[in-house]
Each structure stands twice: as structure tokens, then as C-alpha cells.
Amino acid sequence: MTTSKPTPSLSKVTKTNWWLDATVFLFALLSVISGAYFLFLPTAGYQGGRNPMYGVTILFTRENWDLLHMWGGVFMIIAVLIHLWVHRQWLGMMARKLINQARGQGSRLSKGGKINLWVDAAIALGFFLTAITGIYLMFAPAGGYQGGHNPGWDPGFLFTRTTWDLIHTWSAVALVAAAFLHLIIHWRWVTKVTGKMFARVTTIPRRQTASAANTSY
Fold first, then answer.
1. Which end of the chain is more exposed for a tag (fewer CB within 10 A), N or C?
2. Is the same domain home to 97 and 172?
3. In total, how many domains does the chain have?
4. Diameter of the chain by CA atoms?
5. pLDDT, greater one: 166 or 39
6. How far is CA 144 from CA 40, 152, 154, 158, in A?
7. Ordered alpha helix ranges (H), the chain
8. pTM for the predicted model, two decimal places
9. Which residue in 178, 157, 172, 163 sits closest to 38, CA to CA?
10. pLDDT-derived band of residue 203, with 50, 70 and 90 as boundaries?
11. Highest averaged pLDDT of the listed ranges 17-26, 132-141, 193-202
């Protein structure tokens, strides 16, 4: 007789949250890696041979890195919007709690709750700025200044293209830093639930194999 370990139990809500968080994390990681490529290898032209990094290929061409960064960011935004929709009741509850605290009403948040709230607020602000500036840069005309031959290079909507790019870069850096703090704060939950999720993946096939073996003649 074959015995198997019980499959770790997880609620439907916990599994949904894990899948949403994992999806956001994967697309965010893709955006961060590709963004780091452009941060440390900025476009600076050939410079008459004075730019030794011009034309250097790391795994992919610069165009492919650009595609990875763009679509990683697009799918990350979609995943985050779904995440916000799923947690809309919690967000509403926290908003009401903050309003009540500002009015001197209701229970006060603990120190840990306040830290978590400020980190989440930093993530939200960083994400908003990164997403808005990223969308602007995606749809704004590109192709370089071309010595004045590209009249739509810098439409100058609110800011110059350079300013939009700077806001996009540093809001993304702030977002990554805040997300890292968020991960540290919730590390126990992440490791615990992730361990159970992977345990379910490995336990279920074993139980199916054992069941098939017990019923065969």
C-alpha cells in the first residue's frame, strides 16, 4: 500500500493572489532587466568612434531589448490593473480608514501597518508615474532628432521628451526600491505560499501515479 503526503491546503483567494503577484513579478522583472540595459547602455551614437559601446550586442539587439521592455511594461500594467480590481474592496476599506484617521475618527493603524501603507503608497506613485511616462514615450514620435529632419521628435507636451524620459527612469528606480521593501515585509507570506504552491504541483502527479499503480493488474 502506497501512502502519500497530504496536499497543502490553500484557499481560493490565496491562490488567486499568488498567481496575480507572480504574474506582476515576472513582467516587472522583464521590464527591470530590459530597463537596466538601457540605463547602463544609453543611446549616445557612434561619436566618431569615441563610443566603445556603440553597436555592442548583449544577448539581443537593441531593438529586441526595446520590444521586451515595451511589452513587458504593457503586460505588467494590465496585470497590475487586474490586481487592483481584485483588491478593490480592500483598497476602498483602507481609503476610508485613512479618511477617518485624518478626521480623528476610528482606530489607529499600528506601526507596522503604517510602514506597509507608506510602502504601498510609494509603489502606487512610482507605478503611476512609470506607466504614464512609459505610455507617453511609446506613442510619442521616436527615431531621433535626425539633425532637424524629424519635426515630430519632441512634441513638448507638458515637458520635453528628455524630461519625460528622466521621470520614467527615476520613477521606475523608486518603484523597484519600494517593491523590494514590499517583498521584504511580506517575505514570510511569499515563501510560505510559494512553497505550498510548488508542493501542490509536485504532490498531485505523485498521487495520480500511485493511484494508477494501485489499480493496475
1. C
2. yes
3. 2
4. 81
5. 166
6. 19, 10, 9, 19
7. 12-40, 62-86, 88-102, 111-139, 161-185, 187-215
8. 0.71
9. 172
10. low
11. 17-26
Residues 132 and 160 in one domain: yes
Per-residue model confidence as pLDDT tens digits over 151-178:
556 666 788 777 888 999 999 999 999 9
Residue 203 within a domain: no
Residue 161's nearest CA partner among 141, 146, 179 is 141
User: Which residue range(s) make up the domain with 70?
Assistant: 10-85
Cα distances (Å, whole numbers) of residue 90 to 97, 146, 155, 207: 10, 50, 40, 37
- In 3-state terms, what secondary structure has residue 60? strand
Whether the Cβ atoms of residue 145 and residue 153 lie closer than 8 Å to each other: yes
126: exposed, middle or buried (Cβ count in 10 Å: 0-12, 13-18, 19+): buried
Same domain, 94 and 190: yes
Claim to verify: residue 62 and residue 112 sit in the same structural domain = no
The amino acid sitting at 4 is S
Q: Is residue 208 part of a domain?
A: no
- Shared domain for 106 and 38, answered yes or no, is no
Are 79 and 131 contained in the same domain? no
